[in-house]
Fold:
Amino acid sequence: MKKLVLFSTISLAALALNACGAAQPTKELKDARATYQEASQGKAAELAADELLTAKQALDRAEAAFNDSPGSYQERRLAYVAQRMAQIAAANGGRLDAQKELLKADADYKSALEELNKAAMDEVKANQQRLDKIRKDMADQGNKLGEAAQKLKAQEAELEARQKELMSEKAARAEAEKKLAAAMKSLEEIAKIREEQRGLVITLDGAVLFVSGKTALLPIAQSKLDKVAEVLQQQSDDKRIVVEGHTDSMGSDANNLTLSQARAEAVRSHLVGRGVKSDRITAVGKGESTPIADNKSPEGRANNRRVEIVVSGK
Structure:
């Protein structure tokens, strides 16, 4: 992989030198080169080598088109594809790196939990040893039997209560973790889930939720949102939830803002109706202001028509 990155760097440098006296590459090809260069120096080189190789091959095809016909539509189209491939490789590298960190955090959590359980068992064992000694002392001091017996009974009750509390807490934690893991796995089948700086982001395809231009939820959307509600209810009550409605750039800004707000409100109302506390969740219409793809293509517009549910600690 290091050889591939070195070769790519040399190739790009050579192309740049050759271009000084010849036709200049299009903006799309320059962007594709820069995006690939950035991806090849990031986590993709280590964790998403196949995707990075695919991006390199796509960039090579764009470079060939540039050499054959500088500034042509073929050059721009292939450069666009190469840039997207490089972005995919970079994203997969980041995702896989995040998964590694998540697995490490999970292992650390389990280790800490085991230490806590061991400490609790040691505490139980120590208490039992103390009780045994008290019983022996009581047998040796018959004149203090009544007082010692009452003390022993109180300590035994406290010990049993503590043991039950520890077992109950352990069972509750295990059950909560099991339910959350199952809910998240089920949710991954119908939505895109990612961690961002602003929190956990659940993205739902707007075409699955609404008829074009409408704000009423489709029947299939209600079952999908039921799964989302199940996950949200597993989150702690201090988590804030924001439902964001997004549109593509078709239509006026004002109409898109109104439509996105109404759709966000529809999703919020359904989630509240399925048990999510109303004071935890708000709805915001973003209109066409925050696209995640190019609105010039049908695919890009479809990606922009979406509902995002952001779960944060604020």
Notes: The first helix runs from residue 2 to 19. Confidence is low (pLDDT under 50) at residues 2-7, 13-20.
